[in-house]
Amino acid sequence: MPELPEVEAARRAVEENCLGKKIKRAIIANDSKVIEGVSSSEFESAVVGKTIVSAHRKGKNLWLELDSPPFPTFQFGMAGAIYIKGVAVTKYKRSAVKDNDEWPSKYSKFFVELDDGLELSFTDKRRFARVRLLKDPTSVPPISELGPDALFEPMTVDEFTESLGKKKIAIKALLLDQSYISGIGNWIADEVLYQARIHPLQASSSLSKENCATLHKCIKEVIETSVEVGADSSQFPSNWIFHSREKKPGKAFVDGKKIDFINAGGRTSAYVPELQKLSGASASKAAGKPGKHASKRKGGKAKDNDDEDEEGAADEPTSEEEETTKVTKSRKGGNPKGRGKKPPVKRKTKESDDDDGGKGDASSEEDDEDPEEKAGKVKTRTSNRQVKKSEQTASSQNGKKPKRAK
User: Fold this and answer.
1) Is 2 part of the annotated catalytic residue set?
2) Residue 178: band (very low, low, confident or very high) from pLDDT cuts 50, 70, 90
3) 220, 267 Cβ separation under 8 angstroms
4) Which of 3, 44, 308, 311 is catalytic?
5) Residue 183: which of 61, 271, 270, 47 has the closest Cα?
6) Of 50, 58, 60, 109, which one is the catalytic site residue?
7) What domains can you pick out in the chain, each with its CATH number?
8) Which among 2, 5, 142, 200 is annotated as catalytic?
9) What are phi and psi of 319, to 5 degrees?
10) pLDDT (tens digit, 9 = 90+) per residue, 69-115?
11) 0.85 surpassed by pTM
């Protein structure tokens, strides 16, 4: 998902190309899942004729300040991206649409043409982004709930050390919490912990002053370096774990050392066991539990948890897929052999994802089904089985053989 560097690259592109220009025309997608709280026609009427004064960012959120409110506000979600026609803007790899797609793209949610002919579009292939029209974006969620921005409002070393000392949560989970520090996502958290030689599951409060100072320095360096190159990952330093974090387990190495994948903070986390070791109570706690390794994709690739749902209480909503998983886990007992089984579902290929008519690869009918309805279906099936079992037991006690179901 786009993190601070990608969203900052988009902000700078808008700042360099669009300020002082009037919005001549607007096309807002008729998509109430992404366009939140306002109709597309109302949105268009509110921005046409307005001049773009500045572009702001906090964490992974961007908003355009116009010469009068309300202001278009963008929460990038898992695959949001800004496009400016004729201008190169770095995008998260899974956000990019094909160069030969129509313009504006079928995935466009917000499109404006400026008075000099320049055109800007916000696209979202997976429909986890949110586009809002707000009078004061900083006064309402999600922006009002964010912690200090990792680039613009960094804590001092002393503030950072003191705050970590009060947190018992694992350090990876804490870094992903947008209410603690905003802008750090999965790949940045993995990178700074690798550079600082800190295990993702190490309790935050157990870090030494030296650990805290090193981590503070690494957060600053990783974010500033990635922002300086416009979030272009091909220009990231060669000794970053970033370049190998999506390789197959057993084939992922950085500086000759093996990368392993575990679940930390609810996310697949890449780390180097040889360099990032648990210590103290965290090590003792881990020794008493079986290790939880990250799930693997078909073909053995480590699952890239950047494609899982958003981090932190102040970030995007939990996905329907996660809710479905919870419901499935709540079932007790297995189905009788051959009963209740569903035929295997064919997964769409990457190509078909790109040609799904704008629905995105996270918007299947199954994903859009209400989790509570799914839970109800599970409960109903379970209840029916229990009733049949009770009837069969009663028949047996009366000395009769249970009737075979027709």
Assistant:
1) yes
2) very high
3) no
4) 3
5) 61
6) 60
7) 4-137 (3.20.190.10), 157-307 (1.10.8.50), 328-334+348-396 (no CATH)
8) 2
9) -75, 155
10) 999 999 999 999 999 998 888 766 656 666 667 899 999 999 999 99
11) no
